[in-house]
Amino acid sequence: MNKLLATLIGTLFATAVMAQTPAPQTPAVVKAEASANKANAKAVASEMKVDAKADEKANKAVAKADEKASDAVHDAKKTKAKAHAKVVLADPEDKMTEAAKAEHTNAKANEKANKKIVKADAKAIKATVDATADKVEAANKTEATKAKGAAEVKEAAAKH
Q1: How far is CA 68 from the centre of its chain?
Q2: pLDDT for 52-106, tens place per residue?
Q3: Neighbours of 116 (CB within 10 A)
Q4: What is the DSSP string of the chain?
Q5: Signal sequence: where (predicted)?
Q6: Residue 25: its pLDDT value, please?
Q7: Cα–Cα distance between 148 and 106 in angstroms, integer?
Q8: Any idea what the Cα angle at residue 128 is, between residues 126 and 130, rounded to 5°?
Q9: Which residues of 60-88 are buried (b: 16+ CB within 10 A; e: fewer)?
Q10: What predicted TM-score, i.e. pTM, was given to this entire model?
Q11: What's the mean per-residue pLDDT of the chain?
């Protein structure tokens, strides 16, 4: 029973200490908090704007890469179709030669298409990395602004 009573009394005192109202803030602290809140809101809005632009930039680059890849595959198919048509139209004694040429043409068309695809993908990846870097930089600026505001509020509170 004594332990229960001691716990209840301890809780009562702890609650009484926690329930005390904080001291009223000075005008300098209020002004510093308002300034910090305004700067934080501005920094967050700026960060969101940078994020949106970076995402748009990355998405455009990926779409452009997809389009280039599609064009490269289409060009390769056209080249292969022309080579196949030559084989079909060739005389019976020239069919073997034309078939060999067609295989060579197919290989070159595939190589050319793959080069275009790799180049387009590399550009898209670079744009995505740049966009991510822009986002991180904006986030760092926002964090710095928040930290600066918090420091100014503490400084104003310490002066008074």
Answers
A1: 23
A2: 999 999 999 999 999 999 999 999 999 999 999 999 998 988 889 999 999 999 9
A3: 18
A4: -HHHHHHHHHHHHHHHHHTSPPPPPPHHHHHHHHHHHHHHHHHHHHHHHHHHHHHHHHHHHHHHHHHHHHHHHHHHHHHHHHHHHHHHHS-GGGHHHHHHHHHHHHHHHHHHHHHHHHHHHHHHHHHHHHHHHHHHHHHHHHHHHHHHHHHHHHHHHHH-
A5: 1-19
A6: 72
A7: 63
A8: 70
A9: ebbeebeebbeebbeebeebbeebeebbe
A10: 0.68
A11: 88
What would the 3-class secondary structure string for 79-118 be? HHHHHHHHHHHCCHHHHHHHHHHHHHHHHHHHHHHHHHHH
Residue with tokens 């275009």: 116
Residue 22 has φ and ψ, to the nearest 5°, of -70, 160
Instruction: Give the C-alpha separation, 60 to 119, whole Å.
Output: 16
Tokens, residue 124: 């898209």
User: What does the pLDDT look like over 7-19, one tens digit per residue?
Assistant: 767 676 656 555 5
What are the residue boundaries of the structural domains of the chain, listed by start? 29-159
Averaged pLDDT, 21-41? 81
